[in-house]
Amino acid sequence: MRTGATGGAMRIRGSSNVRISNCEVSYTLRGYRIQDCAEGHITNCSASWLLESAFYLASQTYTGDANYGCTNFHITGCKASDIFHQPFLVIGGSHNTIQGCTARRCANGGVVAWHTQDLKVIANTFDQCNLLAWR
Description:
Mean pLDDT: 91
Strand content: over 45%
Largest sheet: 5 strands, parallel
Helix content: under 10%
Strand order of the largest sheet: 1-4-7-10-13
Number of helices: 0
Structural class: mainly beta
Shape: globular
Radius of gyration: 13 Å
């Protein structure tokens, strides 16, 4: 999917049983943004040349309120490359897993998490991440 640099490729809010597989996103602002959803799988997807996050489990609030954020999500076998922000970003939510994914040539760390509960980061590869330092 190619979109202009003014928006993201995908935004899903308030859904359950989300299934995204074998998709490619490139040359846009943001990749896969999933907000306040209950249970899902993002499998074997890729994102490249994005200005913001590639795979983003979002929350309506940034306060740590347990009523918001994604729960019971599995991001597996996904790839992020040349991301000018975080390859994998999780804000809020609980019982989420990032497993068997790769990130390469990204400005920030491989996984960034805020206000999460029970986030599992298992057997991932982060190569040439955290490339930029801000003072």
